[in-house]
Specification:
alpha+beta; three-stranded antiparallel sheet; binds zinc ion; about 40% helix; 1 helix
């Protein structure tokens, strides 16, 4: 009987952490959408700048860092490059 409760408890923790992770990804995606349109997700002003760009190689995900000149907002996003054909 105790094992059942333990499994149930672990299941709740697992679902909770997965939900938090999905929420985090959704939030991150929402911020990226705003940045793609040129707006800062924090203060809403136009003029967000790409300050850093890093990639592991010719293909694979790129790490882009955006900074807002109006507020302190800085965030990094890993973006999949669409194609590796070159
Ligand atoms: Zn801002």
């Amino acid at each position: 009987m105790n094992t059942l409760y333990l499994i149930l408890f672990l299941l709740i923790i697992l679902i909770g952490s997965v939900a938090t992770y999905i929420y985090y990804l959704k939030e991150k995606n929402h911020e990226l959408e705003s940045i793609k349109r040129g707006f800062c997700p924090k203060c809403g002003q136009k003029g967000i700048m790409l300050t850093d760009q890093r990639s592991a190689g010719c293909c694979g995900p790129k790490i882009l860092t955006f900074t807002c000149p109006h507020c302190e907002y800085t965030n990094s996003f890993s973006i999949e490059t669409p194609s590796c054909s070159s």
